[in-house]
Design brief:
This protein is an alpha/beta fold. It has two domains: 17-39 and 282-378, Alpha-Beta Complex (Aspartate Aminotransferase, domain 1); 44-280, Aspartate Aminotransferase, domain 2. 37% of the residues lie in helices and 15% in strands. The protein is built from 13 helices and 15 strands. The protein has helices at residues 17-20, 41-53, 63-77, 92-103, 119-122, 147-153, 176-189, 213-216, 249-259, 268-280, 282-303, 332-338, 363-378, and strands at 28-29, 86-89, 109-112, 130-133, 137-139, 142-144, 158-164, 192-196, 224-228, 242-245, 310-311, 319-323, 341-342, 344-345, 354-358. The protein has a seven-stranded mixed beta sheet with strand order 2-10-9-8-7-3-4, with helices on both faces. A hairpin with a 7-residue loop joins strand 11 and strand 12 (319-323). The radius of gyration is 21 Å and the shape is globular. The relative contact order is 0.17.
């Protein structure tokens, strides 16, 4: 039986960060990256079993969870990992912050590549470390690394490259050759790579294939921390369960030492939901990808007729990256909010004049949002 993504699940007055930002306002939210879909039934069932047990003390990661993650990575990416490589975390952003503390010394440089998820700009300790921004560039309407600029920014003071793969917000799925070029550069300058791969299971372009950099560039694995989670894919971000994969013993020890006493343990319900997602949620995920691809195509077709807006090609995520520079507005996000559409501002990601639209919602909600955007643009004459 097909899974129903069309039914609208009301999130109003549920303390939803996404929806309650606009409480008592006629603004549809398409900003923060969580989905409006009810989670897969196996996840609900697993949570109910744990709820019925009724005890929620400190909880170890279930052995079955590591096995489920290992099986998923092998099946999807032909990546074989050992269970001891996995470090459980309450969030990928936590993993970014721990990495900055573990691998970047006082006065060291951390390289990031805007436009990029805003926590890449603020996960470091500002009084101790420096963030060096090396923007991506576009080749044939596809955002990718500017390797010449990246090498020019590297120095003996560069300690860390924080990557986002697949990329948020541009939706790029990096190729094997692109990943190899980055890994070779980091080898040359003795730089540790931290790769946020939280969107890896959300590739909607059938011609694209995600490659975990630690698998694709196995010769560099001793300097790579991979951050993953089922949170975006299976819509369980509020439960707080993610993990780092670190094959090198010394690197893993440094990471765990930096996390000691400042990073809380993963909650028991989060473990259960994540186990159910990786073990039993793939049918739901595959139907989700088809629905998301349909929503993205709808946006592309509808917004292409709106003068001043360009929906850029994406290969992964449920986040449309839209060039709004043609509108010539000083506050694009504020303009659309006034017309009932809540979007993420490009400035948040280091790219002015862009907006990001979360299309992980029912088609009817998306249609209403696009209709409001059309009316807003037409009001400019």
């Amino acid at each position: 039986m097909p899974i129903d993504f069309d039914t609208v699940v009301s999130r109003k007055d549920t303390d939803s960060l996404k929806w309650d930002k606009y409480r008592n306002q006629d603004i549809l939210p398409f900003w923060v990256a969580d989905m409006d879909f009810k989670v897969a039934q196996p996840i609900l069932d697993a949570l109910q079993v744990k709820m019925d047990h009724g005890v929620f003390g400190y909880t170890l990661p279930p052995e079955a969870l590591s096995a489920a993650v290992i099986a998923h990575l092998k099946a999807e990416y032909q990546w074989s990992i050992d269970p001891e490589w996995i470090v459980w975390l309450p969030g990928v952003v936590t993993g970014l912050a721990v990495s900055c503390r573990a691998f970047c010394t006082d006065g060291g440089d951390i390289v990031v590549n805007p436009p990029i998820y805003h926590h890449f700009f603020d996960s470091h300790e500002a009084e101790r470390q420096n963030v060096v921004q090396v923007p991506l560039h576009k080749i044939d309407d596809r955002w990718t690394y500017d390797m010449q600029a990246l090498e020019a920014a590297f120095s003996n003071n560069t300690r860390l490259l924080m990557m986002c793969s697949p990329h948020n917000p541009t939706g790029t799925v990096f190729t094997l050759s692109e990943l190899a070029a980055v890994a070779q550069l980091c080898e040359k300058y003795d730089v540790i790579m931290v790769s946020d791969e939280i969107h890896c299971d959300l590739v909607i372009d059938p011609q694209a294939q995600h490659h975990p950099i630690a698998s694709a560039c196995a010769d560099s694995a001793q300097r790579i921390v991979t951050l993953m989670s089922g949170s975006k894919t299976w819509n369980i971000a509020g439960l707080n369960c993610s993990f780092a994969i670190i094959s090198d013993d010394a690197l893993r020890h440094r990471f765990c030492s930096a996390a000691n006493s400042i990073v809380p343990s993963v909650p028991p319900l989060a473990f259960e939901a994540t186990l159910a997602a990786y073990r039993d949620g793939d049918e739901w995920r595959r139907e989700l990808l088809q629905y998301l691809a349909g929503n993205y195509e709808y946006i592309r077709q509808e917004i292409r007729s709106l003068k001043g807006l360009v929906v850029e090609p994406i290969q992964a995520t449920y986040l449309a990256w839209i060039d709004a520079s043609g509108l010539g507005l000083d506050d694009t996000q504020g303009f659309f909010e006034k017309h009932g559409v809540g979007l993420s501002a490009g400035e948040q990601f280091g790219q002015a004049q862009y907006i990001r639209l979360n299309f992980a919602c029912s088609r009817s909600t998306l249609e209403e949002g696009v209709a409001r955007m059309r009316k807003a643009v037409e009001s400019l004459g």
